[in-house]
Automatic annotation (TrEMBL), chains A, B:
Lineage: Bacteria, Pseudomonadati, Pseudomonadota, Alphaproteobacteria, Acetobacterales
Gene: fur
Protein name (Swiss-Prot/TrEMBL): Ferric uptake regulation protein
Organism: Acetobacter lambici
InterPro entries on file: FUR, Fur_C, WH-like_DNA-bd_sf, WH_DNA-bd_sf
Pfam families linked to this entry: FUR
Gene3D superfamilies given in the database record: 3.30.1490.190, Winged helix-like DNA-binding domain superfamily/Winged helix DNA-binding domain
DNA sequence: TTATGTGCAAACTTTTTGCTGAAAG
DNA sequence: CTTTCAGCAAAAAGTTTGCACATAA
């Protein structure tokens, strides 16, 4: 009987294995960071989090891994405005979508259960096999009938967006 | 009576004027290029088209203009994968969406009349005022039951995508 | 006439890559 | 043992910006 000494494989690591990827220490760490993320980190942020678990990791590796996993369909790239790509694990069946607050870049997730099925039908009707989709909604927070409109509202594309 | 010698203002130029923008020669040209585009040009492409109409224009100006028009809500930025931002005029009411062929980057447009109304409701329910949305569907062309599977299929992100 | 826009080239930011040593299978 | 991966630093790609001149209103 083999004794399991290491922490169980993370969900993303599982998927990597299923896709036949060679599991290096670095990939395992990045996979774990991704599995534990419940937000939409960009490469910098993934790198930061990975470096905490294992400092002998480089940004280049994070870039290469993230690209690889995207090609395998394990990760999805998002663009919420802000100049850098952000990533989240692909969820099959239980898709969620994003509402981005244009004033501060904050991201709110929402669901629409019928949506994915509908999009698969659209793809099918156009002669395509569904691979993935993105739905991004941009909005401004509605003020709850409170007046002070002289706020310093950042308007242009900013670099450090949240969530 | 004033004689109109110049070509009529382009649709985008109209919008610029309505937004109180100073109309320089360059902006007029870019506005026209945008008005006449029925695809999703990136900055390079806009620059190329604009340079045909007026060669004393620079890429920097195209970047600045495109950014300005996006901030004014006249243009919308898209990311179809391929590393550069692509632009199209905002359409109010008659939104269309994009299906991207993951194998060759080609973009097909499709409509869904109920969709925008539904998204406005979602935004509203979450306490936001609808600003804009993006919907991108990625798919692989379904082979019409014809077998030859040994094709040289480009897989990674390529730089010169179509449409 | 004044505020704003433009061209140019340099700077910046994000992402990719060539090369050499390392490690997975 | 062979093939693929990682680190590093250099380069590429896309986009922004400072400055001096030009131009719209």
């Amino acid at each position: 009987m083999t004794l399991k000494v290491q922490a169980a494989e993370s969900r993303i690591e599982q998927l990597c294995i299923e896709h036949g990827l060679k599991m290096t220490g670095q990939r395992r760490v990045i996979a774990r960071v991704l599995s534990e993320a419940d937000d939409h980190p960009d490469v910098e942020e993934l790198y930061r989090r990975a470096a905490v678990l294992d400092s002998r990791i480089s940004v280049a590796t994070v870039y290469r891994t993230v690209r690889l996993l995207e090609e395998k369909g394990i990760l999805e790239r998002r663009d919420f405005g802000g100049g850098r790509a952000r990533y989240e694990a692909t969820e099959h069946g239980r898709h969620h979508y994003h509402l981005i607050d244009v004033d501060n870049g904050k991201v709110i997730e929402f669901e629409d259960p019928e949506h994915e099925a509908f999009m698969m039908k659209v793809a099918d009707r156009l002669g395509f096999e569904f691979v993935s989709m993105r739905l991004e909604l941009f909005g401004k927070k509605r003020q709850p009938a409170n007046a002070s409109s002289g706020k310093t509202t950042p308007r242009s594309r900013r670099k450090g967006d949240q969530t």
